[in-house]
Amino acid sequence: MPELIHPGGRICVVLLTGLGDVVNGLPLVNALKDHDPSCHVTWVVEPMSAPILRPHPSVDDVVVYRKKLGARGVWELAMEMRGRRFDLTLNLNVYFKSIWATVLSRAPRRVSFGRDRAFDGVWLAANHRLPPRPRAHTVDLFGEFAEYLGVPYGEPDWRIVFTPEEQRDQAAFFAEQDRPLVVIPPASAIHWKDWVPDRWARVVDALEHDFGLRTVLVGGTGERETRIAREITEQASATPLWAMGDPIRRMAWMIEGADLVIAPDTGPLHMARALGTPVIGLYGHTSPWRTGPYRRYHDLWVDTYTDPGESPDPSSFASKLGRMERIAVRDVLERVERAVERYGVGRG
Length: 348
Fold this sequence. Notes:
6-stranded parallel beta sheet, alpha/beta
């Protein structure tokens, strides 16, 4: 295999979305910087996830690709990339939308997943491809790029940092709270991953009345997630704090300061793992072994994806419809009790 990475090289990372994937790509860029602090890392990303990269100690430059603009978005991306030079491009995505950034990087060495794991001809935009392997947890998948480059990966870390102003805002926000907070993103990007609003409402009430915990609802401004959050608020007797539509970085420092996160398979769950906040993951539609919090808090997730007696399989890419509805309120509250006992949730 030819030498692909050189001292002081200019590296383009293509990882566009979603938020959870972008968060789980951070250990790779940290490994690149640890291996060669002089390398220059540019990350191409879609707008929603871009704020998590600004600032980040291992990301020197961020290029935003506005995919939703169609051909105009590709043209704008081409203009952004025209003035940049790259020695190496790593395409961590597996869908067609990542081809444009990979090709427009004009790097002489371009690495992607191979035909066994990428779709839509993505591998054709690369001239180096990872060897075939079973699918694995996202963090491990991205770690294969480090292995291919001969870069030590070790135990992943995320290194999400907050500015002094953000730290002051965080301190002021939590100083106003009269009890520990639980962050709940009630909806995900894919509606099949969502849980049932009236069950969320019952969890919100139990958190306040039985555990002395206050809930804050976080998420985007989309119609579906806003509607779900309103249904929860209307059906619960306790009143959760409303942070729907807040900026991603504000959500991040809320997650860092919270005692607990309860979430379906969505970006804030992986952010919680990255920031070391205990997280209860609700899994029915997707495999927690592939998309769960990486190597931690497995004792807290609720798994209706894996059938009784079935061996854990992080290579499973199949989605299972109707499994989220199998998660009962008591399942979640049992995990809350476990979080109190094992992780000190609510104890200050």
